[in-house]
Specification:
Layout lengths: L1 H14 L4 E11 L4 E8 L1 H23 L8 H28 L5 H36 L2
Antiparallel strand pairs: 1-2
Helix pairs in contact: 1-2, 2-3, 3-4
Length: 145
């Protein structure tokens, strides 16, 4: 997993979009039950990279465990996995592009607008890849005898 995340970090430097934003001073985030002090914030591209590296690492571990490339996963599970990985890749690319375009805007309203657009992109990507997965699963059911 660390190797995959390292590769995503290299990719982020090449395209100029960080996985994390390092703040000058720590900020306190007040959750309902506790407070958290942090000096880094993760971007959408960073979250996508983290989840993709976790998923691929788990899949590699499953393949080693079962000594089978498919890792003991059914066709349905295969389509689920592909939908999640490609959906996260698409969201990460769209979020990185939005971040690169939005980098020079500052202010509360700009941040709110950025988060609304980023959330909309996430929702659209989720719907698109859910529909793709549903079509693949429907064709898989039709192939079964």
């Amino acid at each position: 997993m660390i190797i995959l995340y390292f590769l995503f970090e290299k990719l982020s430097k090449v395209i100029g979009v960080p996985l994390q934003i390092y703040l000058d001073e720590p900020i306190t985030i007040n959750h309902h039950y506790y407070e958290e002090e942090t000096d880094t914030l993760t971007t959408g591209f960073g979250y996508a990279a983290m989840f993709i590296s976790i998923m691929i690492s788990a899949r590699i571990g499953m393949a080693f465990n079962t000594i089978d490339f498919r890792g003991g996963v059914s066709k349905k599970g295969e389509y689920e996995f592909l939908a999640w990985v490609f959906g996260l890749m698409t969201y990460g690319a769209a979020s990185a592009t939005l971040f690169a375009l939005w980098r020079n805007f500052h202010g509360v309203m700009a941040n709110i607008f950025f988060n609304v657009i980023d959330g909309g992109i996430l929702l659209l990507v989720f719907i698109k890849f859910k529909n793709w997965r549903d079509k693949k699963l429907a064709s898989l059911r039709q192939e079964e005898p």
